[in-house]
Write a structure and sequence with these properties.
Blueprint (H helix, E strand, L loop, with lengths): L6 H9 L18 E2 L14 E2 L4 H12 L2 E7 L8 E7 L21 H14 L1 E3 L4 E3 L2
Antiparallel strand pairs: 1-2, 3-4, 5-6
Helix pairs in contact: 2-3
Length: 139
């Protein structure tokens, strides 16, 4: 099952120019946007701001296609099981070393792939420098 981006990530994505029209890859399936309070309920009288709520993989694809920002997650094992977990990489190149992967901290990974991907997506979005003329990824 695909996981939707969090409200925090949705707000960050919108600030970086990501516009999501509410449709997933299957045009019959729509995704409700987040409202300013973080809820995702239907209210035709709501006049506030909306934030798109795509799947993590759609945002990951947008970062890759538009800015060449690669976000990847791998499971790593250490000598001590408490350090095992999922670590993310966020870079402008596909070719990185295992030293360029990040977890909760240097010794502990995330419990799930989706948790690591969410933090990686936020890191990727933060690499985008937004100005009045255009968006570009920072090197």
């Amino acid at each position: 099952m695909e996981v939707l981006i969090s409200f925090e990530t949705a707000k960050l994505a919108k600030s970086k120019g990501f516009i999501f029209d509410g449709h997933t890859n299957n045009w019959l399936e729509t995704t409700l946007p987040y409202r300013e309070d973080g809820s995702r309920t239907i209210d035709f009288t709501y006049k506030g701001e909306y934030y798109g709520a795509p799947t993590q993989s759609l945002l990951q694809k947008w970062l890759r296609d538009k800015y060449n920002i690669h976000v990847e997650v791998n499971y790593r094992r250490f000598g001590v099981p408490s350090g095992n977990g999922y670590f993310y990489m966020c870079n402008l190149t596909k070719y990185v070393t295992m030293d360029e992967y990040f977890g909760k901290d240097i010794f502990h990974g995330f419990e799930t792939y989706e948790e690591a991907l969410e933090v990686g997506l936020q890191s990727g979005l933060k690499m985008i420098k937004k100005d009045n003329k255009r968006n570009e990824a920072r090197r």
